[in-house]
Each structure stands twice: as structure tokens, then as C-alpha cells.
Amino acid sequence: MAKKSRKEEIITFNYPDDVVLAVNDLKIYFELKKFGFGNAGYVKAVDGVSFDLHKQEAIAIVGESGCGKTTLMKSILGLYEPREGKIIYKNEDINKHDRVTKRWYHSQVGYVQQDPFGAIAPFLSVRRILEEPLICNGIKEPGELDTRIRKVMEEVSLTPVDDFINKYPHMLSGGQQQRIVIARAMILQQKMMVADEPVSMLDASVRVEVLKLLEGLMLNHGLSVIYITHDLSTVRYFSERIFVMYAGRLVEKAKVNDLIFNHKHPYTEALLAATSEPDAANAKIYKEIPEGEPPSLLHPPPGCRYHPRCPKMIDGLCNVDNPPEFEVGPDHLVSCWLYKDDIKD
Amino acid sequence: MSGIKKIFKELKNFPTAIVGLVIITILIIVAILTVIFIPYSEAKRQWRGDEAAVYLNPMNARPAWTNILRKDKWPESFNVVFSESDDVTYTVLPREEDDSEFKVVTEMSYSFEYDYGAFPQEILLYFEADYINSKPFIEIRVLTPEGRDIRIIRKGVAHTETYRFNQDLKLEQKLGEKSALIGLFSTIDPKDSDVPEVAKGTYTITVTSQTFEEGSNVDLEMVLHGLVFGATGTDHRRRDLTVALLWGVPIALLFGLVAAVGVSVLSMLIAAVSVWYGGWVDTLIQRITEVNMLLPFLSILVMIGTFYSKSIWTMLGAVILLSIFSAAIKTYRATFMQLRNAPYIEAAITYGASDWRIITKYLIPRIIPLLIPALVLAIPGFVFLEASLNVLGLGDPVLPTWGKVISDAYYQSALYNGQYYWIIQPAIMLIITGLAFAMVGFALDRLFNPRLREQ
Predict the structure, then answer these.
(1) What is the ipTM of this complex?
(2) Which domains does chain B carry?
(3) What pTM, to 2 d.p., does this model score?
(4) A172, A262, B127, B422: which has the fewest C-beta neighbours closer than 10 Å?
(5) Looking at A70-150, which runs of residues are DSSP E strands?
């Protein structure tokens, strides 16, 4: 163990200052145990994901349930250890078993969860909830705690502050609870925020407000945001790039407009087709959706993981080799053999 | 703090809980007063059965209140120190001609009413004589209500000497009854000639002392042992049961509370650590628990009591140690398992809360509503356990406790001998204590559990 950590110390990373977070060929496997000790294979929840997140940039990761979005997010937050690959934040490997680095990283990253009521401890008052991150990071002076809590509550528009500060979570509405969660995720003046479907549990009237709040905070504080969702309709609000995830891999990475109007990957097409538009006529139209189910992550299909469902599958290629990323436009990468000839250089 | 106030407010809706709380409060007050007014050393001294501590007490006496139920009252005990009592008449008899220079003859007589329907258990005279060379000489006479003037004994007395009526075989022969006191106190013509009957009325005991030296004198204390004594009666070693019943309160409360709090809090903490760290820590704790659950609890306590020490502290420690790794750990573990992956705990990790902080500030507060009723309900269990250990002969040999009283009563066949008070009184104390905690515990359970479901 000691040998390994010494080796780790030598590695330095030279990403440009602009890159806040770099995920490099990340693989998160969960071991399945037999009789409590034998190995019965691995669930390959995230299998070779790479991307860079730039300063003040918002990216969205979309994909259907079970595609590994949440696992990816939790490993970015440092909750899971990667089996392979690295997560590098400001040129520091966050998994290098170094308490100081880990602490520092935790104080830099905010986490906004899906279910606001579950995300805050029900037995703590708003003040205690917001105080906790500060206390854990060594700010214990009562005056400073109070000023910072009030400041952040004003920023998430929980005003007048005195009406909320001594309340308990069950006394607040869903939108207010989510504002508490957002306030907690930025009270340490974090530089990066990971938002896991932050509005999916809220009702439609509050969604836009919360999304606008997030957008405003992002602009005011220079936050980088990773926004995870299965709902493409909320993506447009503030993200610049969208990554489409399927069965543990990113299949298409593009700017928002490119992805929506000029998507390349057959899966992206199917995903967009499934997005509902508020139109009464839709009730009578039968939508084409790809047949089959998402593959088992325990025994994923060889080659492209989408090939068993893909209408454009090329036999002998798609079901044999994993497609690399082909650049089909500026900042537009697709992992699909259909574009093997579009390589520019 | 407002939470505690709120709980008390809501407890008002449960009448049983109020009764329970009142009983517990009374028990606590009694415990405190007992410790203040009968200090530990005094209680120990009384319970050891020192002659000086128990000489006034009759043996196996019923509680005084049982007289309410009797038409013919049973005699109560009393004592008179002759030199200090105003009811004793002193007469210095005139000197006779041939007496020596220093001879003094004093007549001390004391009269008492005896209106009881039963014979006294014993009369004792404790003499204290001051002299240098020549022992004083005494003569005891008793005048019965029927005018019989009976000479009990004539003898010389040493510096301290005790005379017991019922142990004087000569007196017994002289009076011709089953015992000296029956002979002394029975009437001349009973209704049934086979059954001796008490002659009610005024008895006068006269002690005539002859001293032969200057400054020599005789003092005595007369103690009559009746058949009823005090509020709770006495046991076979003439110990006042009140001491044991009162001292039983602080001991039972302390044992129950310390054991219940110790066991509940420690097993909760261990379960939290087990769940939070997982891996080999969890495996180790779970295996220890499973093995411990199979070990025979009482047999281990019997072994500790037999080979090591029967001190209540040793027993308490052993009980706590053996109970920590019990089924409670499994219950708490199951609840913690649900909480372990709660989103708010994940959030706590991501803002850098330490493991210890997560265990104490995030995991444990969630389980406290479950813990409090369980803790209160566990107290009577440990109180009964302490009593059971006593009955099994594993009680603290020095401390007077309820279990000890029951155990003594059992070995002396109290119920067979009709000494029901000996067993019933400590049993009632145990039942009241158990009932009080159970009533509060059940109310707390009802109060906390719907709230758990709500969350």
C-alpha cells in the first residue's frame, strides 16, 4: 500500500488552468459476491468514461434510468472508488488516499440531490443543516457561521431569513427544501456543483424557478456544473454541452444545439424522439421507440453496447469492436461506427 | 430541550404514564432520603445483624400494622433504661443494723400495662454494674395483675450482664409452663385449662440491688420483645426489614438504570460503528454478537459469583458486558442499515463530515426515538434480574436488597411459617417499580412510534 501511494505522488497532471475537472477513462465496477466471499463477476456501471469540464461551464449528462449516470456522479463526488481511470480536479487526483486532498476537494464540490426531503436531515433545523458543512470544514466561530448562513439563504431567496432559519425540513415546501439543498451545496463557496436531477421531484411550477436560481448562481459565482438528468426538456436551461450516456459509456458529446438539431448517434435519436412535446395530437401518434431493453451491465454485449437494439447495426463491426470517438463536427464526438469515414484528419 | 418539554406535554394524554411517573418520582425521592438518613455504613451495620444494632428487635416479628386486623392485639416491643426513665421509682431502703458501712439497698420498680392477647417473645435485662471488688447483688421480682408476686432470680452481677427470662430453665420449672414468660404472664384461671391465657393488666417489675462499695451502683435496661415490630417487621436474625426495603430502592434503581442505560447506549453505539465501517469490523461485531447470544447468561453469572466476587458492582459490570452484544445490536443494525445510504448522509460525506461525526450526529439521533422506550422498558428487567441473582445466592453479601429479603424468606420457609409479610413486602416493591417503568415505557413507545412511521 505504501509503495503504491509513493508511486502516486510522483504523477503530476498538466491540464490547462481552464480545465476544472478531468475524467480520464473512468471505470467503476461493483463486485458481485458469491457466498459472501467468492467472486460472481462485476457490474460494470461505468465503463470507460472520459470528459473535461471547463471553468464556468455547465454540462449535462442524459440517459435512461440505470445507464450509470448516478454512479458516475457519485464517483465524481468521491463516494465510489474507481477501478480504473482517474478523476482529476485542478490537477489533483481525488482518489489518491490523501486526507488533506480529499478534504480540500470535498470543500470545493457542492452536491445537489434529487429528493430534497431525503437530502436534508429531518431532525435538524435549517440553521443546523447549513451550519454543518462550515463546522466540518473548521469554521466554528458563531458570528461568522451566522453571517454566512444568512448570506447564502438570501442568495437562494429564502427570505426573510428569520422566517426560515429555525424551521425544520417538514415545515417547508418541496421548492424551499430544494433551495436549502442548493444553499448547502454552495455555502463553502464551492467551485463546482454536481446536480443529480435537481428538479425531477419538484412540481412543474417550481422547476423553472429552481433552474433559474441554479443558472443565476452559476453566473454569479463562476461555478462549473455537472447536471445529471433523464429529462431532456430541462437540459436546455443552462447547459452548454450535453453528454449522452448509454450502458456505462458516453455515446455522444455535443453542444446543446448540435445535439438537439444535428444528433448523430442512433441512440440519441431514439432518446430525443421519446421526449414528449406538450401537444394534444401526440396522444394519437404512435412513437417509434427502439425495441428491446438496456443491456445487462453484468454481461454487456461485445462491441457497441447499443448494437442489439440499433436499427443501423453493421454486422461484423458493431457487434465485435467497441467504437472509438469520431469527431463529426466542432466539439461534437460520437462513438458510433456509422461515422468511421467522417474522420477529418 | 423544547423536545423534552413536548414529550412531557404529550405524556399527559396517557394517564398510566402519569401514574408511572409519579411512582418513579416517589421512588427517587425515597432513594435519596434513604441514602441521606440511613447512610451506607449504618445500613451495612444494621444488615450485618450486630447485637448492638438489633438488640431491641424481636425475631420474626410481624409488622405493627397487622394489629389492626386482630381483635386481641399482639404485644409491641418496648425498652426502658431505668436510670433515664421517669416512670421508674427509686427507693433507698433503710439500712439494717448489722449492715456494713457501704452497703446500700435500692429498690427500682417499673410498672407497665400489658393488654395484649399474646405472650411476649422475650424479656431481657441488660445490667451494667460499677464496682471494684465486690459484685453488687440483685433480686428481681414481678408482680402480676392478679397479685402474684413471683421472685424471678437472685444473683450477683458482673460489670455487664444480660438476663433472659425465657432462657432461665429454673424459672421455667418453677412456673411450670412451656416457657418462663408464658408462666409469668398467664392468668390463674383460663377459660380453657389446656391453653394458657394472658392476664391483662399492670405488671410491675422490681429490681432490688445491694451494693457493697462506695460509688458502686447498678443500672439496667429492660427490653420486652413483642410479636410485632415497626412498619415492616423483622426477619430471623432480628434485622429490621425497613432497612432492606428502603435500601432496596436506591440499589434497584441504580442497578436497573445503570444497566439499562449502559447496555442500550453501548449496543447502539457498537451497532452504529458496525454498520458505518462495515467490512471486517461489521463481520467481527456480528460474529461476537452471535456467539454471545448463544452463551448461557445465567451460568456465566453463577460462575463469576462463585469463583470471583459477588459484589454488586462486579455483577453489574458482568451483566452489562454480557448484554451489550445481544439481540439489540441486531435490531439497531437493521435500522442503521436503512439509514446508512440515506441521501443526507451521502451529502454529509461530500461536505467532509468525519466518520465519528456521521455516527454521532446523523445516524444515532435518528434512532433515539426507538432507543428511549426500549431503555425505559429495559429497566424493570434489570431490577428483576438483580432480585433473581439474590435468590440464586449471587447477591451482594453486604448490601440489603429486596432480592436478599426474598431469598432469606425462602430459605427460612417464611410462607410455610405464616410469615407472609416477609415475602410480600419486597415483592410489592419489585412489582411497583417494574410496573411504574413499564407504564411509562409503554406510553413512550406509543408516543414515539407513530412519529417514526410519519417520517
Answers:
(1) 0.83
(2) 2-48+239-454 (1.10.3720.10), 64-225 (2.60.120)
(3) 0.80
(4) A262
(5) 84-89, 92-93, 109-112
